[in-house]
Fold:
Amino acid sequence: MSNNRKLFKLLAQICTCGLIASGMASAHAGGGLLGQSGYLTAGHFKVESEDYSALEINYTTEATDVLAIKYGAGFYDGAPVKYGRDDFVGVTLAGYYHFDQNIINPYIGLGVFAGCTYNCSSAEKEHYGCEEESMFSLYPELGLAIKLDQFFIYPYVRRSFSTNNGGEAANVIGLAVGFGI
Structure:
């Protein structure tokens, strides 16, 4: 097993343990960012001029009435770039301060993402295999959690500082749509 796959497996196990521990420890069961819930999202976001689609499974728990913690894992499909594809998978952990509103809830937060990128051109795919790299990013986030029963919409903006692009910051604008599970 490659070092990147071992790292990803370890991060997924850490995230799973965190989900279990926070679910057992959470005392706040209502309102909040999304309350205490698991949910699936499909989204679209732009990093600078590149388009990405996302499919995530997440779990949010409320640490207090105004602080939420999100654990997640996802697959992110990059639009074809000049020389191939830019896809990645990984896990995320984020903390959010919110205003504890029922339907439209503004929030601000800080998150970390760890995963692997798969940058692949047609020639690489055919002859050599795709390039796989570990990546880590830190991002402040500002957005709205719009919740209608088990359905929700999350428009957001992020400033991502990632090892994937040489440490340069990138602007991220996105929209996630999901439902509770």
Summary: The radius of gyration is 17 Å. Residues 3-25 form the longest helix (23 residues). Residues 53 and 139 are 18 Å apart (CA to CA).
